[in-house]
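Deviation from plan, reported transparently: heme C complex.
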Amino acid sequence: MQNFPKPIRLLAPLVALIATVVVVSGCGTTQPDIARGRVLFTSKCGVCHALAQAGTTATIGPDLDDAFAAAREAGGFDAATIEGIVEAQVDDPRPSNGNPAASMPAKIVEGQDLNDIAAYVGKYAGVPGAAPPEVEGGPGAQVFANNGCGGCHTLAVANAGGTTGPDLDEVLPGQSEAEIEESIVDPNAKIAQGYPANVMPENFKETIQPEEIKELVEFLAENAGKKSGG
Ligand code: HEC
Ligand code: HEC
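Because the crystal trials were delayed, the predicted structure below was used instead.
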């Protein structure tokens, strides 16, 4: 750079600055990721809301299929309208009928997380017949798929290739069902070596029914370490 004539040398920092701005603003314009929105919805919103496509059944807040079904059917609401309502509600929730204890907390998620969740809810809330994508392998495999475990973990029988958390085919063989269950319902009890704490959602105990946890643990104990299709 020392050899450039003076005007270009002066421009260089400006060019660098523009490049930075482009990179940063690029993040804000990313297309919403519906699959990611589904995983975030089950952990951040599924504690309080039922939504058929997410497989959540909680009743603290309104059933989001019921909330949008009539309007969607009447043709007044499309995905983008619902997306906008969801974003507004999460940013600045309406208080619920004078009962602050049952109100929705503000800004549970923001930024790209909120975009992804809102796009996901906009796509599926109130859509007749919406259900979690069905997978083979029995009830435990379905629980694994419904809760987005494969987004973070590798498990060959589930065709899952996530790498945020440990490869379950490598770490689970040899573990007892009790150990596997503890890792799911209380992920910070023992942190897998080389992985960060507080990344695996801590509320599967609330969002997954006890019967489903049992199916999930049995499925993992039986199938981790097996090749896909085996
Ligand atoms: C702690 C419980 C709780 C959590 C977590 C929660 N909500 Fe809510 N939500 C409520 C309650 C209660 C209401 C009804 C009262 C209100 O509007 O505040 C509600 C209302 C809503 C509504 C309006 C529904 C209607 O009938 O118009 C939407 C949309 C919504 N929530 C979306 C979400 C999304 C998306 C998330 C996750 C980012 C979320 N909620 C997380 C409790 C919750
Ligand atoms: C957002 C990413 C994420 C999601 C979603 C997630 N996990 Fe994890 N998981 C992690 C991380 C990171 C660790 C390692 C840190 C720790 O031990 O908490 C982990 C650890 C584990 C372990 C312990 C592994 C060991 O080394 O013994 C098990 C078992 C597990 N997860 C199962 C699941 C199941 C089943 C689901 C779905 C219900 C799930 N995880 C969803 C990120 C995730």
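Residues 139-223 form a domain with the Cytochrome Bc1 Complex; Chain D, domain 2 fold (CATH 1.10.760.10). We consider this an acceptable substitute for the interim report.
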